[in-house]
Design brief:
The structure holds 2 protein chains of 2 kinds. Chain A contains 13 helices and 13 strands. By secondary structure, chain A is an alpha+beta fold. In chain B, the strands form 3 sheets. Chain B has a 5-stranded antiparallel beta sheet with strand order 8-7-6-5-9. Chain B has a 4-stranded antiparallel beta sheet with strand order 11-12-10-13. In chain B, 34% of the residues lie in helices and 26% in strands. Chain B is built from 9 helices and 13 strands. Classes of the chains: A alpha+beta, B alpha+beta. Chain A: Keywords: DNA-binding.
Amino acid sequence: MAIAKAERLMNLALCLMNTRRPVSKRELRASIEAYHEIGSDEAFNRMFERDKDDLRELGMVIETVESLDGEIGYLARRDRNRLPEIALDAEEAAALSLAAKVWQQARFAEAASGALQKLRAAGVPFHDEGDGDEGVREQSGHSALEPRIPTPEPAFEPLMVATRERRPVAFDYRKANAVRPEPRQVEPWALECWRGHWYLAGWDRDRTAVRVFRLSRITGRVRTRGGAFTTEVPDHVDVRAAVASWAGEGATATARIRLRRDSGYPLRARAVETIPVDADWDELEIPYGHGLDAWLVEFGPDVVVLGPDELRADVVDRLRAVAKG
Amino acid sequence: MANAIDQTRRMLSLVTYLRERPGARVSDVARAFGVTEAELIGDLNVLPLCGTSFRGGDLLDIDTDGERIWWHNVDDVAQPLRLAADEAAALLVAARAVANLPGLRESDRQALLRATAKIEGAAGEAAGASSRLSVTFESEGSVFADVDRAIAERRRLWIRYYSPSRDELTEREVDPIRLFAVGHTYFEGWCYLSEDRRTFRLDRVAEIRLLDTPSDPPRIEPRDLSQGLVQPAGDDPEVVIEVGPGGRWVAEYYPHDLAEELPDGGLRITLRTPDPGSLRRLALRLGRDGRIVSPADLSGSARDAAAQALAAYGE
């Protein structure tokens, strides 16, 4: 019954914001019609606790005050709940509302549009444009860009909350080459989306080291553990640097290959040096990072590795496996 | 139908918003709040059931004739509410991601950075959590700027474009329609070489020039990006790939119909593609981590390519 609940939450919110003194649970129960229907004290208490949590999720600061006679009262002070003055000009508002559309994940998409609603209610001059293709094209002066953050895996939401609240988590994780997933206990530090994939960086308690996990390799549920972090969360966590090095970037070594003329454009684009050999072949010097062997094999007979020997052996090894079928 | 929390959030902003706007139009307010008119009417049906204080307070006397909205006992019952942690994070992470996109117009970048600083200030401690979350869009700045300009000036583009599936560069004229970023940055346009709508990844554009020819693409529906970039058609040929544990990544990168667990920790993946030949690269890349089961000619072509390549090493 979504309507009934929204009505109840709205009544509770208005009550708490429009009182000057703390209001007791008893007074709230008597005053809000939706609470009348609840028979048992226990059911009411549960519902009331949940409702307060829901309002807090919307950003409301609800204070708990104990009165002289020992009764607990609640109130949402205006000064603590007010959005501070925020003066965005039309340009800033437009840029922000474009950026806010990037989320496709339900929770953040709703949060972003809720934030814009609050800003709009506070008088930020958003241009109420009708969306769509034509609208995007007409608004010259701005980049005609539609950025989208890919919808993350189910593990994203619990990890996001755990990261924010600094709670240790446990999950099963399948490493790239592992036959089976293994249980991990992690203190989650930061989440980052790079090249369309989400990663978690954190302290792996069993390995007692920093680890980066790819969310798509987390199997099953993320469980939150009690207790606090045992490690200091660093100010800056460079998830991308770790991932990029797996992707073979930032390599300092180089390799020499022969490449058939007019093929392998991405290898050429990356080459440090390119020398024509004869009518059909060029010789290239290219960065040699992690994963280069697998990439070179993709080019089949259009690439021949000249060195180093180790890379040459890896490539030959892979080719043999494919040739065997 | 949005859930009760989202509806409550919206209604709280609505009472602040309506206070300043007597007789506001239903259509305008619905658009401003990003909801359908029916959803807005739903909110307007709930608001009169809401009291303004805990004891004997008046109910909100808000009503609508379906066209305009009237609030008869306008009162200062709510104020623009401070941002919640999720809300601040959603805005700030998004704004930082877009602001860092190489090639974005400088005026847009500056506007976003100013907006970000102001939101950080207004959000206070709620902004803190956003630093634990980040998104990077990859983009080729100069290509981005050219495509952006071509769209704004409605001009045709000439590009040299790399197609990895064929390992070749082709020259094409394209009327660009839009730029979008999903991890990588792409543009969509009408391609005169294929006489069809095509999507191009910016880092595969080897060369780009703006032509003086005005862009004149046929009217086409923009692609629905929420369904993913690759959307195989039902009648595309089927490919079956078996991978070991080391080849499980294939299921993360290739949209597929089916991925069945194998006893050795591997997967049997069934996918459809308009051009199975393009998967020869994948078969070569997999090496001992996997093989194409069918079609047979595809696995045969990978084997032949590997044998030919080995010949150059004297095998």
